[in-house]
UniProtKB/TrEMBL annotation:
The keyword Nucleotide-binding applies. One of its GO terms (molecular function) is ATP binding. Gene3D superfamilies: Phosphorylase Kinase, domain 1. This is non-specific serine/threonine protein kinase. ATP binds at K79. Signal peptide: none annotated.
């Protein structure tokens, strides 16, 4: 199984107001990860947005092209989640953390989408996903 190369850790706090009008302070502790086996650090500047593939309650999925590094030109799906929407419900935040952890652990499955990179900006979480090996074998 591939090792996670954590590039940096980010702690941030965010003030939110729930549906009852109560104010809460939420502390985020997330790491940026490059799971490709290469040591490059990635961010939004390394991807060209091509088109929207889907929209959901917590964010969007874009088709992107990597613009630098060992995989320059490679197409990926970029799942972008809004932190403010995720932290409003504890279960949603837990599910998002679990999604990231599961995607890291099952990277080698030929039937599931592969997580290549994960990083964050001040207001958003980004998961960079690639096609499955099974999908590749069909085309």
């Amino acid at each position: 199984m591939a090792e996670s190369s954590s590039n940096s850790s980010s702690d941030s706090e965010e003030e939110i107001r729930d549906e009852k009008g109560e104010d809460w302070t939420v502390k985020h502790e997330l790491t940026n990860a490059n799971l490709t086996g290469h040591s490059e650090k990635v961010g939004m500047e390394n991807f060209e947005l091509l088109k929207v593939l889907g929209t959901g309650a917590y964010g969007k999925v874009f088709l992107v092209r990597k613009t630098s590094g060992h995989d320059c030109g490679q197409l990926y799906a970029m799942k972008v989640l809004k932190k403010a929407a995720i932290v409003q419900k504890a279960k949603t935040a837990e599910h998002t953390r679990t999604e990231r952890q599961v995607l890291e652990q099952i990277r080698e499955s030929p039937f599931l989408v592969t997580l290549h990179y994960a990083f964050q900006t001040h207001s958003k979480l980004h998961l960079i996903l690639g096609e499955t090996a099974y999908w590749d074998s069909l085309y």
